[in-house]
Amino acid sequence: ESMYKKAFDLAGIPAFDSVSAYQRAFNLERLKEYPAASDEYRNLLVSFPDTAQKAEIYFRIGVIAAYAAKDIDKAYEYFSKIKDEFPKTPYFLSSLYQSGLLHQWREELDQARENYDLLLKTAEAEGVAIQKNELALLARERLKEIEEKKEIKYGLRLFLEGTFKSGKESGPSSLSVDLTGRPAKGNIGKPVAFVV
User: Fold this and answer.
1) Which end of the chain is more exposed for a tag (fewer CB within 10 A), N or C?
2) Model-level pTM?
């Protein structure tokens, strides 16, 4: 990061192409400097509005907004952009799951159900083996909780309570989340999946 900072201080945005700007934001995310990472991802979108990684960037900003900044409404905004603009990307199903989970956490069960149902419908239409796909299995599990009027699975509920217990404030009653960034480039032939 120090090299990126020096280059930026000396030459500004023109010193970066979209790949190096993305790498800088990703490095900040890996260093757990989430506000700075989110800012850099947003700067990248402004400087390179046609970047091929736009869906991934929206997803990363959404996850950082939800789980690091504890701003669920901002997370919805970015997950919705994926739903609207990138329905044919791997981030589409992940954003539906994340939106559904956050709605379920807020007890907005109709919206949660809508997201989970769309995830399953889309996965099936795309030929995803929904009996084996992790996101599809999780969506079914969340739908079953909603149908049976049960709480979210214990471990996941503890994570969400710890994350959102005191809202945007971070302190002893709030969990400090470790959002470990995945490799900037996935393995060839392996789908990218982001699951909480």
Assistant:
1) N
2) 0.82
